[in-house]
Amino acid sequence: MFVPKAPAEAEITVKASRFLSRIELLSSQEEVKNRVARLRVSHPGAAHVVWAYIWGRERSVFGYSDDREPKGTAGRPAFEVLKGSGLTNTLLTIVRYFGGTKLGTGGLVRAYTDAAKEVLACTVSVEDVAMKRMELTVDYSAYERIHKRLAEFGGKIHHEQFDADVCLQVDVPESEALGWRHDVMDITAGRATIQETIQERLQEEQEDYI
Question: Are the C-beta atoms of 46 and 38 separated by less than 8 Å?
Answer without folding.
Answer: no
